[in-house]
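Sample intake — histidine kinase
Collected from: Pontibacter actiniarum
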Amino acid sequence: MAEKIKVLLIDDDEDDYIITRDIMDDIPRRNYVLDWTSSFEEALALIREGRHDVYLVDFYLGAQDGLQLITRAVQEGAKAPFILLTGQSDLETDEKAMRAGALDYLVKGTFNPFDLERSIRYSIEHAMSLAEIQTLNEELEQRVEARTQELAEAIRKLENTNRSLYEAQQEIHKALQKEKELHELKSRFVTIASHEFRTPLSTVLSSASLISKYKTEADDEKRQKHVERIKSSVSNLTNILNDFLSISKAEEGKIYNVPTTFNLKAFAKEVVEEMQGYLKAGQQIAYQHEGEERTVNIDKQLLKNILLNLLSNGSKYSAEGKTIRFTTSIANGAALVAVQDQGIGIPKADQAHLFTPFFRAQNVTNIQGTGLGLNIVKKYVEVMDGKLEYQSELGEGTTFTITIPNTAEA
């Protein structure tokens, strides 16, 4: 027999406890044990004991609310997932719940045994995935610590031998620095992966739970809104995974330059058309090809990835209604590409680190991203023996210019 799943309901209304208990009793193949507390402080004490697999938290808890409880419990290291019970069904409540640390929310009075069972199951699975990422991070830190201790011991032995002490210390310090950089890079990867995956996964989870409640034709618009949210989140996850895959291939030297001959102007127009679905409201890409020559012989796929990265950045860091200017030309045996936005610009202090993996400028903290796009662009340009330049002014926008050797015959 499968082990019972222990659920703690935190709600100051005994009637809600009775209703929740009855709904849970109606779950097919019921495998749940429901406990209940109405006290904010008693709930925190029970959460600290870690005896439950999932917590159902009411939004209103007397003088305090469920979001405060979830925030505090997560800060104290609670591992089991939280599901918020609320009387409202709106995007604002959804976002507040996710920011506090809840993995899902249910609207009181509307969910049935199927909704409750699915929400509990999905939340537990999601929490297990996040815990696995955290475990990998902790194991990495332990390995780095062990390696650091080994290197420290090597330094001690070299000092005792008193042979080529200075040169040996320099080599060891370099190794320590390289190990530190590796550790920081891996830690940034785990942190960013956990954060960037969590937001779209939470959106998919909450929208999938809500879609089942819209069953009539009158609900089509609401249902379609959540379908679009799921599509957008899946697309976001795909882009993140592609970025990680591109970085991995580049680091392993598995990105190759395979030139083909094609019409640069026609190709650029196709890329602009592909970008239309990603632009903000009122934004447009103003494309222009300068000159009569249009045929190039360069790697088409690498160029496409470069353009999609630069154009999506131009849209992401520009406000609604702004224009992204995109020009191409062919001159002096090279193809030239320029993308100019009217966005927030890059602070001078951050420009030296612009192409570092996972680096994000200080003025983009509220804009979603992994910090890999420009690093990928730079690596692709280098593979194509090209040159990447940029100009940026804070608050006025950024222009990226790429020059790639063209071997096509005129």
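Post-analysis note: The chain has two domains: 1-254, 260-405.
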